Amino acid sequence: MADYPSFFLLPQTITLYSPMPPDRIEEILRQQVDARSIPFMSSLPFHGEVKPGGFNISKVIRYRNSFNPTIIGTVEPATGGSTIHLTLRLHLFVIGFLLLWTPPWFMVPFAAVIAAISEQRVEPLIGVFIPLLPLVMLLIFNWAFHREAKKVLELFDTLLRATPVAR
């Protein structure tokens, strides 16, 4: 799988191609998606909903991970198979939490730097490392989301023989 340059808070759009016809893809997805409300108890790889022409699913995981993407997709006929348009994004609750939780992590380091500068004593730790901490956290979050997105795309490749066409 290729690198994912997109930012994790923004939806990631990917187009896949599969040699299978759309009805076969929907049939396979229905067989692999559990519609029950308790997803971690499922033996299937996905939970969610599959409708004619589209789906809204998430990968079933048996570990804690807020960065497991929600997958919203449509299936369309294409020459010799199907085109699958996917949008991978964080769960809306996680996005909301991060939008409320992240700003203080950016404000506190910069307030510490401003306070240190006003007192005319800039410690190397405050001056360099503390302002970088929020950026490092966002990079780690971005990596975690794309790691889970890669697992989802690998499952689609295995189940549907679907390969990326465009991002």
Description:
The chain has 167 residues and is α+β, with helices and mostly antiparallel strands. The protein is built from three helices and seven strands, in the order βαβββββααβ. A seven-stranded mixed beta sheet has the order 2-3-4-5-6-1-7. It is elongated, with a radius of gyration of 20 Å. The model has no long low-confidence stretch (mean pLDDT 81).
Sheet with the most strands: spatial strand order? 2-3-4-5-6-1-7
Please count the helical segments.
3
Distance from N terminus to C terminus (CA atoms, Å) equals 12 Å
- Average pLDDT across residues? 81
Structural class based on helices, strands and sheet pairing: alpha+beta
Give the overall shape, derived from the CA principal axes: elongated
Q: Extract low-pLDDT stretches.
A: none
Largest sheet: 7 strands, mixed
Question: What amount of the residues lies in strands?
Answer: 25-35%
What radius of gyration results from the CA coordinates?
A: 20 Å
Order of helices and strands: EHEEEEEHHE
Number of strands: 7
Assembly category: single chain
Helix content: 40-55%
Features:
7 strands, single chain
In short:
By secondary structure, this protein is α+β, with helices and mostly antiparallel strands.
Topology:
Blueprint: E1 12-18, H1 22-32, E2 33-34, E3 46-51, E4 54-59, E5 70-78, E6 81-89, H2 92-118, H3 124-160, E7 163-166
Parallel strand pairs: 2-3
Antiparallel strand pairs: 1-6, 1-7, 3-4, 4-5, 5-6
